[in-house]
Design goal:
Layout: H1 3-9, H2 27-48, H3 57-79, H4 83-88, H5 90-111, H6 117-148, H7 155-180, H8 188-216, H9 222-241
């Protein structure tokens, strides 16, 4: 890992001079890709109260394939590029994939006997891992775009923001269990509690960003805020329409 990458990954850091250029591709493309495009589309739909009856499941699947598979291939190329990287992130590269493979094999065998317990467990593990990826990716984008602007998060900001993202992870899993299980009444209270806690998650994230503002004397970088806000918009869309990819 390069020195620059180590500095981005370290939460206990201070401010430094901004690097040039302070973007990855262009300011507009970065804004759209970090979550701006989805916010421009989803927020008006949420505010309008519209249903998505005009969107077919087939269209959703094809869009997910086009976007997600390109993302998966790029991510796998990074994480599996050498043995050192694989060993450093063993849970992501080896252990969780093996756990999911074992769950899938057992679930398929069990399904032949008329039971779906392990099949549900397989998708629950997958949903939890997906939520871990979503929230971790959000933090990674926040740290990266802050780094490009010469701003670093300290430990207080790190734990406030990441703690809020962990709450969203729990909400994601509670939503999955409530909407997937046949007898999900027992999870209704858990889902309601997790939904209420998303307000705490938002306050924690805002607290971290405000702490950064006071400490550095400058507003948090726009794309850092967009990356943080976009995951709340996406989870709002999932809660409203049940669209998760």
């Amino acid at each position: 890992m390069s020195r620059a990458s180590k500095r981005v990954a370290n939460p206990a850091v201070s401010t430094s001079k901004p690097s040039a250029p302070a973007y990855i591709l262009t300011p507009i493309v970065d804004f759209l890709c970090v979550g701006g495009l989805s916010m421009l589309v989803i927020i008006p739909l949420l505010l309008s109260g519209a249903e998505l009856n005009f969107v077919s499941i087939g269209a959703v699947v094809w869009v997910q394939i086009i976007v997600n598979y390109a993302h998966f291939m790029a991510s796998y190329r990074i994480v599996y590029r050498d043995r050192a990287t694989m060993m450093k992130h063993q849970w992501a590269t080896i252990r969780v994939p093996l756990i999911m493979l074992a769950c899938l094999i057992i679930a398929l065998v069990e399904a032949q006997q008329g039971s779906q317990i392990m099949l549900i467990a397989f998708f629950a593990v997958g949903s939890g891992y997906l939520a871990w990826h979503y929230t971790g990716q959000t933090w990674g984008m926040m740290a990266s775009f802050a780094h490009l602007r010469g701003v670093k998060f300290d430990r207080t900001e790190y734990w406030l923001i990441r703690g809020g993202l962990r709450i969203l992870l729990c909400w994601h899993l509670a939503w999955f269990l409530k909407t997937t299980l046949r007898n999900s009444e027992g999870f209704t209270g858990i889902y309601q509690l997790a939904s209420a806690m998303t307000v705490v998650a938002a306050l924690m994230g805002m607290g971290g960003l405000m702490h950064l503002w006071r400490r550095t004397g400058q507003a948090p970088p726009l794309l850092t805020v967009v990356a943080w806000l976009s995951i709340f918009v996406w989870y709002g869309a999932i809660a409203r329409w049940g669209l998760a990819g």
